[in-house]
Fold:
Amino acid sequence: MEQKKQSLRQKFRIYKPFTVCRIQEQLAYKWSFYLFIFSSLFCVFVVYYLWKAIYNSSSSATINGFTLNEMIVYIFMSFITSNLVRVGVTRDIGNEVVEGTIAMNLIKPIHYQTRLFFSSLGNLLFRFLVPGIPVWLILTICQYQTAGQLPPSPFTILLYLLSAILSFGIMFLFDFCFGLLAFYTTYIWGLNLAKQAVLSFLTGQLIPLAFFPTSVQKIFEFLPFASMNYTPVMIYLNKMPGERVFFSMGVQLVWLVILYLVAHGLWKRVTKRITILGG
Amino acid sequence: MRRYLHLYRVFAGQFMKSLIQSKVDFLIGLIGFFFSQMFGIIFLSLVFKQIPNLNGWTFEQLVFIYGFAQIPRGIDHFLTDNIWMLAMRYVIRGEFDRFLLRPINPFFQLICDRFQADALGELIVGFVLVGVSVGNHTVTITVGNVVLFVISVLTGALIYTAIKLLFASLAFWIKDSIAILQVAYETSDFAKYPISIYAKPIRFLLTYMIPFAFVAFFPASYFLTGKNLLTTIGAEVLIAFIAWLLAYAVFRKGLTVYESAGN
Structure:
């Protein structure tokens, strides 16, 4: 699979079509995609109303350092972020293994992981446009009208985007490692469900990690999950003091490197044992 | 009728065989659904460290509502999961043909084709939480309550089935109704919590349009308070009946406009 070294520019030219193709795919099925996004917003609204009721029932205006307004921003920004970073690589690999097309894709003179990465990039770009931008706009306008709250400074937003991109990378590698399980079981749908449930909890999408007991939070500091969603959202909310922002982004970088090495190692092992039915 | 019962046993037997063959997949699905429902409860328990009650409901009561909601959902999920296939591929790929060729009721064949063992994850969560609620005396066991519980859970499952069948049957006209079905089904997420926390339009939707509130919250509130039997479980039975008749009529109508995909 090793080819002669290509310059970054060449590489980009070779793999760009995969990104474009993914975006076109999503556009072709855009109505079902929109409906899918719409139905996933239900979940967010359930949580939204829960929080409203929770703050109504609470005697103090802040819970674990969050005001109701901050909490609302938190859950919607979590929704946007998790949509951005959700890559679906597990499903891509799973389908290819089940259908056997992975054999052809391994033969082609194209680096498998790089191709997946560029496809996922298409997801990222598309989801930045829908639902990212519209949900963010509606959230910002609603916040301004009901609470007189302005969006954070452009610099904060820039930091958020940087951190979100790091999250995307971490998520991609994690999902890739997870997807390799497809070589051992064919029930990807069930696997994905379990993964999604665990992630939505551990990445702080469902509830800010600050709500967990301190001992559990200590454990989370040694796990990659906070880097997948919690960090960018907390940066957006200005909930981190200056030096903490850079520390957290440093942690994200470290996880990026660790997971890259793990993914690399696993890939080598797995491709050795692959057997494919038919062709 | 005897023939159908016999056939059902045969189908169920086949399913058991496939289950034994794919034990790992079964475990994965079960754990998946178990997790996705269990985290809702952990969420509540974390939040209740900060507040004494939620809109007047205690943590124990919310646990019961949440657990109760899983049971009809799980029953329907286990028995009729194949309805999703109608929405997703049977019509668009012309695969519905085979259900029309055999001299057996097409709906019966549709749901018999596949049972969904993953649903046991939901049922386990549901029964554990209801069991906990009985244990800490949030609800009490009486003969009347047990009978009402069985009625309520079964009619609740029927409401689920009817809603799924109704939206899946749209596929007969629009070929692929998976997205619409998904949206309709996901509204059931709202029903796991007291309906009073939602804004008016959502309450209206859950009560009168897609009646998931009658599957979970209303009957559960009867068991918690012992009040309003007629407007909770009574209404649930009535709604299940109407919803089923409506959904089945649409399904029958759909059969008449079904046209197979050409080869």
In short: The mean pLDDT of chain B is 87.
